[in-house]
Amino acid sequence: MSKKVAVVTGSNKGIGYAIVRGLCKQFEGDVYLTARKEELGQEAIKSLNSEELYPKFHQLDITDQASIDRMRDFLKNTYGGLDILVNNAGIAYKQDSIVPFAERAEVTIKTNYQGTLDLCNALFPLLRPHARVVNVSSIASNAIKKCSKEIQAKFLNFTITVDELTNLMNDFIQAAKNGDNESKGYPSSAYGMSKVGVSVLSEIQHRQLSADPREDILVNACCPGYVNTDMTLHKGHKTIDQGADTPLYLALLPPETKSPAGKFLLDREIKKWNE
Fold first, then answer.
1. I need a labelling partner for 220 at 20 to 30 A (CA). Which of 60, 116, 131, 211 fits?
2. pLDDT (tens digit, 9 = 90+) per residue, 30-50?
């Protein structure tokens, strides 16, 4: 039987780094720390080695299809499958950013939503029975409450497809470029909208994999909470290990777990992300 393997995206620092640390301690298999830049990934590996933890490294940029394809081919050729995927990679512009909103909207959606989707499209065929997928979203996805009732209904339609969701995300980007996102029914929160996409995507993926012949593959989304990281300008009250707790809990759900499945969690509790 092939050795088990886990992959954590965007994991050279912050919450992703702590998730790798936790998996190294609890998961019986190889754990891959990934980063866009090789040197930053290798620095993180050395830091964990100093704790006598030994993850492996693979370069991965979820906004680069060639990088995604290399990751896919490596996993397929080396392990023949994948057991844990934690989609942690993401970006957020600072509140005082002077970057135009149109650019923030496009870059944030392309990374947090489209990059995550592209990676899943590449790696989901490798998921083995009993695999666990964790999409790190955010309570910021309650930005949907600032959408018009019409837009909310589209996102929350139980039968929404990935293509329909992607069209909505692209429509938001175009509205931001046109400067009429609010009149079109979208909020002025690029990060919040990107996480609406991730939260809805998680529900769609759960629905799809529930009908998959491979048994017991679970997809859940979560909010790690307000964590002391670069993204929060170190204002968060949680440590990175506390932020990693719920993603680790979901990544390590035992075989044949029935719940949570296709849910959104905060502090290990199922929540409604859209309220």
1. 60
2. 999 999 999 999 999 999 999
* Mean pLDDT value of segment 93-121: 96
| Strand pairing category for 127-136 and 82-87 | parallel
Task: Write the DSSP string, 4-72.
Answer: PEEEESS-SSHHHHHHHHHHHHH-SSEEEEEESSHHHHHHHHHHHHTTT---EEEE--TT-HHHHHHHH
Per-residue model confidence as pLDDT tens digits over 213-229: 999 999 999 999 988 78
Q: How much is the pTM?
A: 0.97
| Identity of the amino acid at 59 | Q
**Alpha carbon 137 to its chain's center:** 6
